[in-house]
Amino acid sequence: MGIFRKKRTDEKVDLTALPEHIAIILDGNGRWAKRRGLPRTAGHAVGSENFRKIATYCNDIGVKYLTVYAFSTENWKRPDEEVSTIMSLLEKYIIEAIEEVTKKNLRLRFWGSREGLSEKILKLMSDAEKKSDEMTGMQVNVCLNYGARDEIKNALRGIVKDVEAGKLSCEEISEKTISSKLYSADTPDPDLLIRPGGETRLSNFLLWQAAYSELYFSDKFWPEFDERELDRAIIEFQKRNRRFGGV
Ligand code: IPE
Ligand code: IPE
Ligand code: MG
Question: CB–CB of 143/67 below 8 Å?
Answer without folding.
Answer: yes
